[in-house]
Write a structure and sequence with these properties.
Layout lengths: L1 E2 L2 E2 L5 E2 L1 E4 L8 E6 L7 H11 L5 E6 L16 H15 L5 E6 L1 H12 L4 E7 L19 E2 L12 E2 L1 H17 L2 H9 L18 E6 L20 E6 L6 H4 L1 H20 L1
Parallel strand pairs: 5-6, 5-7, 7-8, 8-11, 9-10, 11-12
Antiparallel strand pairs: 1-4, 2-3, 4-6
Helix pairs in contact: 1-4, 1-7
C-alpha cells in the first residue's frame, strides 16, 4: 500500500491510496471514487475485503478535491471542476491500458461521466447507491425508515437503516471519519453547483462492458427508482435492489455486496481475457 499525492494537469494536488501490485505488474486495475464529502476509506472498507482473494488487481482509491487529503483551491467551485480534476487524475494514474471503474453515491455520478466521455478504456463499471438525479428535490425517494435498531449500539448516522454495533463501527471508521476531514468551505462551493454539465451516457451507443448497479431499497438519499431510467444505457448490467439496505448498503448488507461485486469482477476478468 502507498499513499502518494500527485499533481494533475491543472496543477492541483490529488491524494490517492493504492493497494496491490504496481502498474507494470498488475493484471488488472480498478479506480474507485467515493461519495460527497467523504474520503477513500468508504471505498477501501468495503472493496478491499473483496479484492483480498484477487492478488492480480491494482486498486487506486482517489480522494476527491476538497475531501480527504486532496486540496481544493478557491478556483474549484463546481462538480464540473471536480470532474475535470478526476479525469486528469485517472489519465495520469492509468496512462495506458484498461481499468475497471467503481463509484459510490456522488462518485457514481462522476463515474458515469467518465464512461460517457471516454468509454473505450473502461473495462467494467460498478455503481453503488449512485447519484442519478443530481437535484435532490427531483429525486424519487422512499421515506426514511429504520428496520433494525439495537438500543445498546449507540447513536447511529441518520441515514442508517440497520443500526447495530457492527454497522456503527463501520460507519464511524469509513463514513464519519471522512466527514471529519473534509474541507467545509470547498464542499460548500461545490454543493452550490452540484449538477454537472458533462454527459452521463455515451453518445454513440450504450456502454457494453460488464456493469453492476447496486441500490438500497430503503435508500432515502439517492433512492433506487430513478436508476431504472439509466438501465438500458448499460446492457450488460446486473441491477440489484437490496432490501434491508439504505444509502449505506455496502455496510448494511456486506455479504450480498461482496458477492455481487465479486461476480462483477469475474465478468470483467472474463471479458478482458477474451
Amino acid at each position: 500500500m502507498s499513499r502518494v499525492p500527485f499533481t494533475n494537469a491543472a496543477g492541483e494536488s490529488v491524494h490517492y491510496v493504492e493497494h496491490g501490485p504496481g502498474p507494470g505488474a498488475a493484471a488488472y486495475t480498478a479506480v474507485l471514487l467515493h461519495g460527497f464529502s467523504l474520503d477513500h476509506r468508504v471505498m477501501t472498507g468495503c472493496f478491499e475485503p473483496v479484492f483480498a482473494d484477487r492478488p492480480g488487481w491494482r486498486r487506486v482509491y482517489l480522494d476527491l478535491p476538497g475531501m480527504g487529503r486532496s486540496v481544493a483551491p478557491s478556483s474549484l467551485r463546481s462538480t464540473d471542476d471536480v470532474f475535470a480534476v478526476v479525469r486528469a487524475a485517472v489519465a495520469q494514474l492509468v496512462p495506458r491500458g484498461r481499468y475497471a471503474l467503481c463509484g459510490e453515491s456522488y462518485g457514481g455520478y462522476l463515474a458515469r461521466g467518465l464512461v460517457a466521455v471516454d468509454p473505450a478504456p473502461v473495462a467494467g463499471l460498478a455503481l453503488v447507491c449512485p447519484v442519478v438525479v443530481p437535484e435532490h428535490a427531483s429525486r424519487e425517494l422512499p421515506a426514511p425508515v429504520v428496520l433494525i435498531r439495537d438500543p445498546a449500539a449507540g447513536e447511529q448516522h441518520e441515514v442508517a437503516v440497520v443500526q447495530t454495533a457492527e454497522t456503527l463501527r463501520h460507519t464511524d471508521a469509513e463514513v464519519l471519519a471522512g466527514f471529519d476531514v473534509a474541507d467545509a468551505a470547498a464542499v460548500a462551493r461545490i454543493q452550490e453547483r452540484y449538477a454537472g454539465t458533462f454527459p452521463l451516457e455515451p453518445a454513440r451507443q450504450p456502454y457494453g462492458g460488464p456493469a453492476l448497479v447496486l441500490l438500497g431499497r430503503q435508500d432515502s438519499v439517492t433512492g433506487y427508482r430513478d436508476a431504472w431510467g439509466i438501465l438500458e444505457h448499460y446492457p450488460r448490467a446486473t441491477f440489484a435492489v437490496l432490501d434491508r439496505a439504505g444509502h449505506l448498503a455496502q455496510i448494511e448488507q456486506p455479504a450480498l455486496f461482496s458477492a455481487l461485486v465479486s461476480e462483477w469482477l469475474d465478468r470483467v476478468e472474463e471479458q478482458s481475457a477474451a
